């Protein structure tokens, strides 16, 4: 007698009219020619694989139209559809799932970091949503999908007998997850301009952030670290799949020196010859850590610089100074690690002069890529609280995208002012003769030229 056939679960990255990145902590449309897979769906693929037949549909990277996605979901016998979402696409994602539910009574589960703040509200407002995931690393979702009655369940808010059951778990500082099924994703199609090799994918080694910058949601989740050996197990699996490049998609990969050094040592000991990049916290960078990162294959670090004005950095609890930013950049350059700098334009309290200081700092620093985002009042941030108090935004779940036209108009800057200054930042940073010469000297292949041209077209078409 054969083994019982497993029930099917669909992990869905919904379709969209732009190249949307539904990152767990925020969502936005790609500013250039880059795209990576949703980390929540990747982790779910490992958690669910042991009990279910997992299928993945990334409608963004495969450019699938809504009607085709709807047809697949309605005409397949999925026990549940778990879809990732975010503030930039919430309304269209929910509209699609409503259509699914009207045609097929499958369970529908929404996943997004913002569900930690609005999960119960979403369930009450949208009766076609059966549950929301508030933590994609918790494994109780298996019990929920199997219909096991042992509520409350960790990492989920859900309906039960006409009532809403909220997650009551005790916060843990460490976690492990089953090895994700990366081969279910179209990782040969994912791309980032900072990658040295392909194919590439993302790996999560920690959740949240121990800091509480006023414009960032990551600090609202608490900080949890994944066991190093559990990460190594996943990296070994990716090596067997032929993956060459990793983006460690933690908000703050470099927080703990001991842990980073241990991970890097085990990467080296296991001869895991990936090239990789990560997000770094400027305050945590030091020589010991950077040495090991370089030896283990790190070639690029993304750092949150945000502003060239010390007053703005202090106001939003960034806990760094312009001087510390310069020191961190010098240290990374000393070890020949490339730098992607994140900047924010249009934070309340800024005026034209402070934004010009940010643009000047970006040009002064020896960094390889600069990303200029528009200040966005994400759920769970003190910036959102300020925006609500001053009635810059409504209290509803509206769509907003940090790469689109501003939604905040403050006392000192209009939306048009902020957008003009962001355009100025992009053009002045990327069109400098010194920068263009530097980039040309680093071109080594036709592929490098193709990526550079593609990124330039995408970047300037959105600026």
Layout of SSEs?
Blueprint: E1 8-13, E2 20-22, E3 27-29, H1 39-49, E4 53-58, H2 66-74, E5 78-84, H3 90-103, E6 107-111, H4 115-125, E7 131-133, H5 141-146, E8 156-160, E9 163-165, E10 174-175, E11 200-203, E12 206-207, E13 224-226, H6 228-241, E14 245-248, H7 257-269, E15 275-280, H8 287-295, E16 298-306, H9 310-315, H10 322-334, E17 338-345, H11 352-364, E18 369-374, H12 382-389, H13 415-430, H14 433-441, H15 446-461
Parallel strand pairs: 1-4, 1-5, 5-6, 6-7, 10-13, 11-14, 14-15, 15-16, 16-17, 17-18
Antiparallel strand pairs: 2-3, 7-8, 8-9, 12-13
Helix pairs in contact: 2-3, 6-7, 7-8, 11-13
Structure overview:
The structure is a single chain. With 463 residues, the protein is α/β, with parallel strands linked by helices. The chain folds into two domains: 8-165, Rossmann fold (3-Layer(aba) Sandwich), CATH 3.40.50; 192-430, pyruvate-formate lyase- activating enzyme, CATH 3.80.30.20. 36% of the residues lie in helices and 18% in strands. The protein contains 15 helices and 18 strands. It has helices at 39-49, 66-74, 90-103, 115-125, 141-146, 228-241, 257-269, 287-295, 310-315, 322-334, 352-364, 382-389, 415-430, 433-441, 446-461; strands at residues 8-13, 20-22, 27-29, 53-58, 78-84, 107-111, 131-133, 156-160, 163-165, 174-175, 200-203, 206-207, 224-226, 245-248, 275-280, 298-306, 338-345, 369-374. The protein has a seven-stranded mixed β-sheet, sandwiched between helices. A six-stranded parallel β-sheet has the order 11-14-15-16-17-18. Strand 5, helix 3 and strand 6 form a beta-alpha-beta unit. Helix 2 packs parallel to helix 3 (90-103) and helix 6 (228-241) runs parallel beside helix 7. The radius of gyration is 22 Å and the shape is globular.
